[in-house]
Amino acid sequence: MTSQATRNLATFTLHDGGGVPLVLLHGFPLDHRMWAACAGYLAPGIRAIGVDLPGAGHSDLDGYPPSIEHAADAVYRTMIAAGEGNAVVVGHSMGGYVALALAERHPGFVAGLGLVNTKSTADTDEAHAKRLRIAAAADASQTVDAVLGMPANLVGATSTERRRHLFPVLDSWIRAQSPAGVAWAQRAMAARPDRTAVLERFGSPVAVVVGAEDSITPLAEAEHMVRAAGSPAGLSAGDAALTLVPGTGHLSVVEDPQAVAAALSLLHVQVVAHH
Ligand code: MLT
């Protein structure tokens, strides 16, 4: 695995190959490492670049106010600076919010979209308020204690029973995050708008992936995105695929990396065929 810091965001080659890369954006409160096992299962020849979003992993916060739009612009700038003209942008949960913002703000860059355990809708008032409480707690305590309990909700019932080895790994990834990064991400997510219309306008292949046991971004949210991407108003009618990953929750990428990699490899084939 190689790493380079480019204009604030750290990038990591997680799978070697050529042509249009997959750019893998992580969920909260994690970093690129959540994608490493999944990338290892991609079909041969597919290049995969993991990115640490602002304030996560090896990427600094750069003084911008918290915003998903800023995160999307930072990914775009980082990739352009690295010589990548376009990419299949794949986001898990919070990474999916960033992927949709990228498709909205830099449509020419996004050759395909992978939306994994995520949603295009905005927060409810209750979710919004909870995020601001978590951000305030991280700021006040200067710890990530407020999010240490998350893994119990992130993984599904099957993993809770049969994949206990994931818990210490997730715990170590979360403990490695900075309180400032956690607060920034919560405030950024709280401020994001509904981006369902981005999918209605998107003209390239879309893969939607969801864990069958995901209670955070459940199947109904995935179906909503598939309908939007394949809606008659959209240019991409028929191009949106839905993959339901059995035995996994919100962290399907980590719980069953091989199944998610299969869906993303297929998306890559579709993007290459589409161009
Ligand atoms: C994530 O996995 O990125 C978060 O659960 C997203 C969110 O809080 O909406």
In words, what does this structure look like?
The chain is an alpha/beta fold. It has one domain (4-274): Rossmann fold, CATH 3.40.50.1820. The protein has helices spanning 36-40, 68-81, 94-105, 125-141, 151-154, 157-162, 166-175, 179-190, 196-201, 219-229, 252-255, 257-274, and strands at 2-6, 9-15, 17-25, 45-51, 87-92, 110-116, 206-211, 240-245. Strands 1-2-4-3-5-6-7-8 form an 8-stranded mixed beta sheet, with helices on both faces. The protein is globular. The relative contact order is 0.17. The protein binds D-malate. Residues 27-28, 93-94, 189, 216, 250 line the site of D-malate.
Bound molecules: D-malate
Q: What is the mean predicted local confidence, pLDDT?
A: 93
How many distinct domains?
A: 1
Strand content: 15-25%
What's the total number of strands? 8
Could you say which overall geometry the principal axes of the C-alpha atoms support? globular
Classification by helices and strands: alpha/beta
Write down the Rg. 17 Å
Order of helices and strands: EEEHEHEHEHHHHHHEHEHH
CATH fold-level label = Rossmann fold
CATH class: Alpha Beta
Number of alpha- plus pi-helical segments = 12
Give the neighbour order of strands across the main sheet. Answer: 1-2-4-3-5-6-7-8
